[in-house]
Amino acid sequence: YFTIWNWRLMEFSENELASMICDNDEDVNEALYKKYSYLVTIVINKNKDTLNNLKIELDEAKQESFYALNEALTTYRDDRDASLTVYIINVIEYRVQKLIRKKLRKKSKDEINNVSLENSNNELLKITSDLKYNPENLILSNENYNTMLNNIIISLSPNEKEIFNLIKENYSYNDISKILNLNIKQVYNSVYRIKDKVKTIIEN
Fold this sequence. Notes:
With 204 residues, this protein is mainly α. It has helices spanning 2-9, 14-22, 26-35, 38-53, 58-75, 84-104, 109-128, 135-138, 142-155, 158-168, 173-179, 184-203.
């Protein structure tokens, strides 16, 4: 029965799968758990260097990630802005980052602030790195940064928004293609459109 469910799930759209979660069927949720468990590997691999540098056991991070996967499958509602896959990624990523923040709290406050500021600036610089702008002038303050980021997000289509948010979280284009089940060429095309919109917003 379980194998049949896994086979059938491959035929369902994201919206249909989300609807099944809302029905709270344990057999469906178990099959979905197995179907989306690959997302744990993607998140762990993306954060592996940070986890290793902070001496956080990968097994501990995996265990937390699988808890997060289960949480995502029981809390997702189909009226959310994010798709099911991206919602799962976000919940897993949040749990892993919580582990990282816990470890960072043992370091000095200055180090934590520096890491936070660096990550904040990198979010936008990553997507605009090939544009002919001085990075030092691009982000003048947190307020300007947040305003610019909001304007960018508003200009994006739902699919572009999901790709942009995953880029902000430092996922590679290959990871994004796996997460969103897109051809790598589709990802590159979307990134090209995103960069074009970002360029226009910056110029304005």
